Amino acid sequence: MLPQIKILNRFRYWLAHRILGSLPLELQSAELSLLTPAQLEEAQALFSMPKFFIFGYPRSGTTLLMRLISLHPQVHCNREAHFFTHAGDPTGFIPDSKSQQWLERKSNRWTYGQHLETPLVRLIADFIMEREARRLGKTIVGDKTPNANAGQAVQYMHSIYPDARLIYIVRDGRDAALSHRFQHFIDQPNFLNREDQRIRQDLIRNSSHFFEKKKSVFTQSVIDNEACSWAKNVSETHDLGQKLFRDRYIWLRYEDLLGSPGEHISQLWTFLGVDPEFPDMESQVKTKLAYNPGAEAQLEKEGELVRNLQRGTKGNWREIFTLRDRQVFKALAGTALIDWNYEKDFNW
């Protein structure tokens, strides 16, 4: 490796350290009290349906997984509630300081002198999910929301739902980063800065320059952030999922789900405690996989941007990543790519 590349990589490691922070995970999260055993028992008595949550780095297949898992006659999953996946403390559900003062007033005999923020967040989430599941005649309910806040979401979830199950889906970080970039180009063009707007217009006018790898779809700051964020997400989420949820945690790779969908979705149904065998299961899974409403919507909305990019397939990054893009991911997320069997070594 050339000396200047070594220096550049060292700088990026330093930058990643600055971005991700140096404090232990336990010290980085906002304070949120655990449900007491008594509070957990009360919550389960009021809202008895088993709960599960699907996490994943943005653009990692959480929506596809939600659609497939909901095919089961007993299982319902909806999306984007963000119960735990914003950077702020989930107790933001409790409206304001006056509400806190009212709940904590010594003369309020209903509270038994307890802080009720965590059980109230639990009951709000329970009500939102169970109300819809009951209307559909389902008995197990979950939410899928990409956890862009990585391990913090797992910690918050464990504080509020220590009895729930966590499903984590992982996708090759390079494909996720590319999909994330195009999502911003298509869905949030008004929020792009001047440089991003220029890249977007270049893609529309002459996409061949990008597919010939003469130009990158990423600015330096965007590709650095995507590589750092993905590596942080897969490391923290998996480590804390195992540590905090033990046998209530399961993970899978998006690419493996595409390769053998029936096998993997059956494993997830078994994990949720339902019989994976039901009439016409295989054909329903195949039908659901064949229809990609997101891809059709994007093509209709911004066809010129996405016409040459196959949405949802694996290995798209190879068609468009420049040498610079590869070097950044190798430096900042190379070890994570090897850990998750996306690469055998750094020779790619």
What distinguishing features does this structure have?
Rossmann fold; 5-stranded parallel β-sheet
Description:
The protein has 348 residues and is an alpha/beta fold. It has helices at residues 3-20, 25-28, 37-46, 62-69, 97-104, 117-135, 151-160, 173-187, 194-205, 208-211, 220-245, 254-259, 261-271, 281-290, 293-301, 303-306, 317-320, 323-339; strands at 51-56, 75-79, 140-144, 165-170, 249-253. The protein is built from 18 helices and five strands. The two termini are 14 Å apart. Helix 1 (3-20) crosses helix 11 (220-245) and helix 7 (151-160) runs parallel beside helix 11. The model is unreliable at 1-30 (pLDDT under 50). The protein has a single domain (3-339), classed as P-loop containing nucleotide triphosphate hydrolases (Rossmann fold, 3-Layer(aba) Sandwich), CATH 3.40.50.
